[in-house]
Amino acid sequence: MAEQIVSSIAGKVADSLFDAARHELGYLFYYNDNIENLKKQAKKLADSKDNVQLKIESAKRNGEIILVDVQSWIAEADNISKKAEKSFEDEDKANKRCLKGWCINLGQRYRFSKEAEEHTLVIDQLQEVGKFESVSCPALPSGIISSSKVFYSGPFESRNSIKKKVMKALIDGDSVSIIGICGMGGVGKTTLVKEISQHVKEAKMYDGSCDGSCLSNP
Q1: Nearest 5 degrees, angle CA 90-CA 95-CA 96?
Q2: Is the Cβ–Cβ distance between 218 and 182 less than 8 Å?
Q3: CA 203, 206, 212, 217 torsion: positive or negative?
Q4: How far does Cα 114 stand from its chain's mean position?
Q5: pLDDT-derived band at 126, boundaries 50, 70, 90
Q6: What mean pLDDT is predicted for residues 187-191?
Q7: The dihedral of CA 53, 55, 60, 61: what is its sign?
Q8: H-type helices in 104-187, by residue range?
Q9: d(CA 120, CA 129)
Q10: Please, what is the end-to-end C-alpha distance for the chain in angstroms?
Q11: Residue 53 CB coordination number (10 Å)
Q12: pLDDT for 31-81, tens place per residue?
């Protein structure tokens, strides 16, 4: 019985080692495929970024507020594009030094192939995240821009942090006539407004009840 257990464990370990070795060797076998795939995906990302940038420029012309999520996506897209371009340049230089590929440096091929696969994975993820329904919040009414507060509700700032800022703006009511909470759909803007409304009622901050109409949820 003990021999069977040992044999089973040894077999699983051997399978795991074999799979790991096969994956590592794959970087050499699929070197050209990985490089070409990265080039294609990098081109698609560049096209997607250009499309998002056009939407951003159009929104700015209309005086709209660009979402923080979108700005972050643009920055990440620029970052991975620069890394991919650097990888292409290094690979091209290595091939030229190696008499246009006639002498094969396995270490370099492994590194470039692995980098290409890793960069492609990041680009694929960015492509999914970058399918924005909207890149901006509507502009606030022109007559009250100078006495307004706009807050962003998204993954870059906690709900409590946003809530504290809104409550402070409500306390400073003499200088603020409208409060806007902007963010992508589904991040919890409406829930946050309801929580603040309930807090305002309980604190009796106003003579009348605030049903949420005292806040703006674009």
Answers
A1: 100
A2: yes
A3: negative
A4: 23
A5: very high
A6: 70
A7: positive
A8: 106-129, 159-171
A9: 14
A10: 68
A11: 14
A12: 889 999 999 999 999 999 999 999 999 999 988 899 989 999 999 999 999
Nearest to 136 by CA among 187, 61, 64, 218: 64
What does DSSP assign to residue 142?
Answer: G
Domain positions in the chain are 15-136, 140-203
Amino acid of residue 120: T
Q: pLDDT tens across 154-176, in order?
A: 444 456 777 777 777 766 655 55
Cα Dmax for the chain: 84
Could you tell me which of 189, 52, 51, 62 has the C-alpha nearest to residue 138? Answer: 62
Please tell me the distance from the alpha carbon of residue 153 to that of residue 216, in angstroms, as a whole number: 13
The identity of residue 52, as a single letter, is V
The secondary structure of 37-62 as a DSSP string is HHHHHHHHHHHHHHHHHHHHHHHHHT
Helical H segments across the chain, by residue range: 2-29, 31-61, 68-97, 106-129, 159-171, 189-203
Residue 83 main-chain phi, psi, to 5 deg: -65, -40
> Quick one: residue 136, left, alpha or beta (phi over 0 = left, psi -120 to 50 = alpha)?
beta
Sign of the torsion formed by the C-alpha atoms of 99, 102, 103 and 108: positive
Please state whether the predicted TM-score (pTM) of the whole model is above 0.70: no
Tokens 């049903």 locate to 211
